[in-house]
Design goal:
- This protein is of the alpha/beta class and about 450 residues long.
- The chain folds into 3 domains: about 10-130, 3-Layer(aba) Sandwich (Rossmann fold); about 155-315, Rossmann fold (3-Layer(aba) Sandwich), CATH 3.40.50; about 320-460, Helicase, Ruva Protein, domain 3.
- The chain has helices at about 15-25, 40-50, 65-75, 90-100, 110-130, 155-165, 180-190, 210-220, 235-240, 255-265, 290-295, 305-310, 325-340, 350-360, 365-380, 400-410, 420-435, 440-445, 450-460, and strands at about 10-15, 30-35, 55-60, 80-85, 105, 170-175, 200-205, 220, 230-235, 245, 270, 280, 285-290, 310-315, 345-350, 385.
- The protein is globular, with a radius of gyration of 27 Å.
- The protein binds adenosine-5'-triphosphate (ATP) and magnesium ion.
- Magnesium ion binds near residues 182 and 183.
- Magnesium ion binds near residues 182, 183 and 247.
């Protein structure tokens, strides 16, 4: 007679008895014993009494919540896998739960499609997991977290990865088109990591001339080059114990890449003009909008550095790949912009949302934010209609892409002027015209403070 397969135990914890019935019915399978609890206390008692392989628990529980239950299970029974569920888990819940060691975070709505598969795969993973696995240190929840909006599957997967990598010191490479939120994700990784007590230092590698970049990164001694009037610590020293965010890493010159590789290999570096070797305990997060493997293939980026930085790659999808994020993002920006400027709350119509969802968004979330700001500045009523949404380069309205428009603008500049200064004053002037002379509204539309708008105008005069 064949032997019965060993029994696995799944514990469902949810205050909603209908949900428990429904889930039990959907999950019943040979070799799977399903237990149920309607509160967190009883769930812990069950886990103390018998081995449980997998817990599927709601965030919202009594007398303590699912996050706390997760933490206690991790301590009491580190082998038990935990999946947390909610109607709509928030970004913070997803990041924090995965950071604290949850196997997954799921929307209740998607459970019928996913739970069965997840139960099977997590039981399998657990079988394969080494018994020496130790519980991860739990990190108390951080204050003042970054606000990231995203309900799309693609972005929620990014949040889960943020939660997982936040616990480690592994270098992370964040890729994605311009304006997709790479810097925001870097901040989230830092804020949810044990390093958040120290700073995240940012360096934009594309914005600093090659001859100054080395000193920015590693510091310099007094007199080591013209202009080095005093000894200065570089970003590596400043980030000691914290995180160094190297933005636009794809623009880093090869000569500096060699030096960065050295720090990544053995943690040591020297200030420009110094013999002394220093070390710093720094976690590196790098970001680029370029395709770094193509840069490697063309010889502009060192392959060995690429592999050092790319231990974990986090690809942020373009906004057009996740139109389901657009309604919430639009609402969020509307509230933020109107509150910041002391304006009455403006609502957005369903038709206007539909218009936003069909746009191509080459500038991604930043472009959406600017579009909403412009729409607020120009709005003639408290509800935005499709006609109020200024989609400058919407397909169909204009055959020209941004590069063509820029070419035309550059060609139309008067001879002998500083074209960039001229363009910015033209843009400033046009924004004021569109805002009927209202400086504040024009500044909002351009996303700059009124003082800098004045400054741009006066440069033109
Ligand atoms: N998911 C999101 N939720 C809320 N705000 C977002 C989100 N993604 C991006 N933003 C906002 O959009 C703007 C652009 O984001 P960010 O600077 O992080 O993008 P980026 O990928 O670093 O862009 P670039 O490549 O141009 O440097 C910021 O104002 C940021 O706050
Ligand atoms: Mg950026």
């Amino acid at each position: 007679m064949p032997e019965n397969p060993p029994e696995e135990t799944l514990l469902l914890v949810d205050p909603d008895l209908d949900f428990l019935d429904w889930a039990t019915k959907h999950l019943a399978a040979d070799g799977l014993r399903i237990l149920r609890c309607d509160n967190a206390d009883n769930a812990l008692k069950v886990i103390t009494k018998m081995p449980v392989n997998l817990v599927v628990a709601a965030f919202d529980l009594q007398p303590f919540d699912g996050m706390e239950l997760l933490a206690r299970i991790r301590l009491q029974s580190p082998q038990t896998m935990v999946i947390l569920t909610a109607g709509f888990p928030s970004t913070g819940q997803i990041i924090e739960a995965t950071q604290r060691g949850a196997h997954d975070v799921l929307r209740k709505e998607s459970l019928p499609f996913e739970l069965r598969h997840i139960v099977e795969s997590s039981l399998q993973i657990q079988e394969n997991r080494r018994s020496a696995d130790s519980p991860d240190a739990t990190v108390p929840s951080p204050e003042g977290r970054v606000k990231i909006i995203g309900v799309s599957r693609a972005l929620q997967d990014v949040f889960k990865l943020v939660g997982r990598v936040a616990r480690t010191d592994a270098p992370v490479l964040i890729t994605g088109e311009s304006g997709t939120g790479k810097e925001l994700i870097a901040k989230a990784i830092h804020e949810y990591s044990p390093r958040r007590k120290r700073e995240m230092i940012t360096l934009n590698c594309g914005a600093i001339p090659e001859n100054l970049l080395e000193s920015e990164l590693f510091g310099h001694e007094k007199g080591s080059f013209t202009g080095a009037l005093a000894r200065r610590a570089g970003r590596f020293e400043q980030a000691d114990g914290g995180t160094l965010f190297l933005d636009e890493i794809g623009d880093m010159p090869i000569s500096i890449q060699v030096k960065l590789l050295r720090v990544l290999q053995d943690g040591s570096f020297s200030r420009v003009g110094a013999n002394e070797t220093l070390t710093a305990d720094v976690r590196i997060i790098a970001a680029t909008h370029k395709n770094l493997s193509a840069e490697v293939a063309s010889g502009r980026f060192r392959e060995d550095l690429y592999y050092r930085l790319n231990v974990v790659e986090l690809r942020i999808p373009a906004l057009r790949e996740r139109p389901e994020d657009i309604p919430l993002l639009a609402e969020y920006f509307l509230q933020r912009i109107t509150r910041k400027n002391g304006m009455a709350l403006i609502r957005i119509s369903a038709e206007a949302i539909a218009t936003l969802q069909t746009h191509h968004w080459p500038g991604n979330v930043r472009e959406l934010e600017n579009t909403i700001a412009r729409a607020c500045a120009l709005a003639s009523s408290t509800i935005l209609l499709p006609a109020d949404i200024p989609l400058a380069f919407a397909p169909g309205r204009s055959q020209l892409g941004l590069p063509e428009v820029l070419d035309r603008l550059i060609n139309s500049a008067p001879i002998g002027v500083d074209v960039i200064d001229w363009l910015s004053s033209e843009i400033a002037g046009r924004a004021i015209e569109r805002a009927d002379g209202d400086l504040k509204t024009a500044a909002i539309a351009l996303g700059i403070p009124p003082a800098s708008l004045k400054n741009r105008l006066s440069r033109h005069a």
